[in-house]
Design goal:
By secondary structure, this protein is an all-alpha fold. 82% of the residues lie in helices and 0% in strands.
């Protein structure tokens, strides 16, 4: 693995790893952000539904 960063392709391998790591981190971050947003929205809808059922009963 150490040979990848010292060979003649080191100028390409290092940035490729960096771009891959940054892309993976961005994908994880956006997935978690959307998950939080969906969870909050679902909780709000469930609370509204429960409130609506309590007033009807």
């Amino acid at each position: 693995m150490a040979d990848l960063f010292t060979g003649k392709y080191a100028a390409f391998i290092g940035p490729a790893y960096a771009i891959t790591a940054a892309t993976l981190a961005a994908m994880i971050w956006t997935s978690l952000a959307y998950s939080r947003r969906w969870r909050k929205r679902t909780e709000a809808l469930n609370a509204a539904q429960r409130t609506g059922q309590e007033t009807e009963a």
